[in-house]
Amino acid sequence: MTFRPGMRGAAVLAAGSLALTACSAGSLGSSDDSGGGPGSNTVTITYLIGNQDQDIKTANQLVKDFTAKNPTITVKTETRPAGSEGDNIVKTRLATGDMPDVFNYNTGSLFQAIAPQKNLVPLSDQPYLKDLDENFTKTVTADGQVYGVPGGGFMGGGVLYSIPVYTKLGLKPPTTWAEFMANNAKIKAAGGVAPVIQTYGETWTSQLFVLGDFHNVAAAEPDFADRYTKNQAKYATSPAALKGFEHTQAVHDAGYENKDFASAKLPDGLRMLAQGKGAHYPNLSGVVANMVSTHPEAAKNVGLFALPGDDASKNGLTVWTPGANYIPKTTTGDKLEAAKKFLAFFASPEGCASLSKAAAPTGPYAVKGCTLPDDVPQAIKDMQPYLDKEGGSSLALEFLSPVKGPSLEQITVEVGSGIRKAKDGAARYDEDVKKQAQQLGLAGW
Amino acid sequence: MVRVYRPYSNWFYLPTALIYGVLFLVPTFASLYFSLTRWSLFESKFIGFDNFKLFFQEPALVKGFTNTLIYAVVTSGSKVVLGLLLAVLLTSQIVARGYLRSVVFFPVLVSTIGIGLTFTVLMNPERGLINGALSVIGIDGPGWLTDPKWALLSVAAVDVWKGVGLATLIYIAGIVSIPREYVEAARVDGAGSWETFRRIVLPLSRPATVTVIILSLIGGLRSFDLIWAMTRGGPGFTSDVIASVIYKQYQAGFYGLSTAGNVVLFVVVTAVVLPLSWFLNRREVEL
């Protein structure tokens, strides 16, 4: 043995302390944000939101108004990416017990995928529950327990259209697909304006012809959602459901898309629509606030109609429920109380007023007693007649069935770019949802 | 009792063994196990080889496989050819040689994501600089990243631009180490530049070629960051490679499936590179 014992001890110690520092690096950040300890009066909670401009503006306004009413509570915000990257972060943070005290996330199928029974605090005992719209609570319910409070208004998925283009050419909003295509033909013949704006540079925007068509699917096959969940109905084999894919393809085949559809992004599409360089833009009413804040004239110039189907008498709007705010099970004690108060604020008319102050609303609120301000953009006003009419609107499929495949946006890009035929795309999407259904452990898959 | 000479006592290995075990051994075996489960991060259910079956049925995967091979072969081949030519140029007597060498190497040092985003802007079909320049000379450039025929090759071209500096560096080292006597002897025998290159530089820089091929082939097979930054596998699935298919499964929350995909990727890379390395190195010994 050539080493002196003393040296050996030192080496082990050095290596040991190395390992120790490596450990503590991972837990940084969780020890210093506990706010006031026991005995102090203020509680600090953290609120996780999406990183889109509108999300941040909305959250800041709400936190401001909430803390003005509750001076003993401080709310810090933290952001996460949107889309599937965000899904991943939410799942990982829940699984590792690292979720902030309150977080904003989707409702419907994505909510089902985060194992609410295991991870979230149920809110069924909260007094404000009776004030929430039933269409909304259905989408945040698992095993009879309600877990979420709405973080915004309902959204409509339809076709945003340029009113000046329509007035100039003497067109009227179509109620059937044939009328829609006839309008497109006239717009194309007039020249200078792209009939249909598509922005495949941001792939999620490609899905609207399929997802926004669900009211028409449900009108033709009322039990589609149910049979779809049970693996009995398929997009490729149901004639009504296949229409969405066929429409995506038809618009491309007829050459109605803007020239740069393959690379354009959402802001490009909104600009084209606001400036009247494109006539139709199938999208969610959630993008209107964004458009109006950059192009104020769009508040008057852009309207909305539901995606047209075959039957004018059954024409109606597909509706998305708002994202919700949830409390993870890891929130306890004073923080849990504060978090519950924060959610109660969201579920009150004051909360809605705060939302309206932050940004143009995306649609009606899911809380009773909440009204929309008078100066809402035209596109949002256009949603109201559909919602008022009996049978004039349906929830989107993702709120009626937990089954939603992750690759729809790539598939609709392919169908809408002429890379793949509609029927083939639908069949491929059916394969895609299979994985999701199996992952959720649904019966019959 | 036979005493094997050991310079260190067993205690000395313990910290390293612990770190190695916790950070490498455990995850490796855990990933092998989880690739056999349906895993939602919250719970996992053992399902045997279903993930592998599903992964091989994934239509994107067949496309991903062919794309990965095309990408690896195209980038690796171009790096060998261009790297060798650049190295010959940069070892000759030209002005500002040191400066030119560093210029070729510069893209290697830049962040891949940064390069990807920059080229996405340059390659924009309507507003990009590349098609703008082409239209000046009357060529109507294609949608480099939006046309399914071009997307993968456009990304491969950027990959070559970024990686050729490293190949050049390896070749320069290889060429410089060829003894000058060989070249001089060849000159005396009346060999021209082409003959010198063909008979001396090319065969004697074989070790460099082997290194470049293996490094760039492994890089190409597991390439992900550049493709993700530039096309995200799109348009549709047309520029998907194995790594991006795996990443999408992971994003979608199919954790077991994506772990199975990683096991497959590991096997594929090993199956391609191991025999290749054995073959190339064997030839080197015989030479």
UniProtKB/TrEMBL annotation, chain A:
PROSITE patterns: PROKAR_LIPOPROTEIN. Residues 1-24 form the signal peptide. It comes from the Bacteria. InterPro entries: Bact_solute-bd_prot1 (IPR050490), SBP (IPR006059). Keywords: Signal, Transport. Belongs to the bacterial solute-binding protein 1 family. PANTHER family: ARABINOSE-BINDING PROTEIN-RELATED (PTHR43649), OSMOPROTECTIVE COMPOUNDS-BINDING PROTEIN GGTB (PTHR43649:SF29). This is Extracellular solute-binding protein.
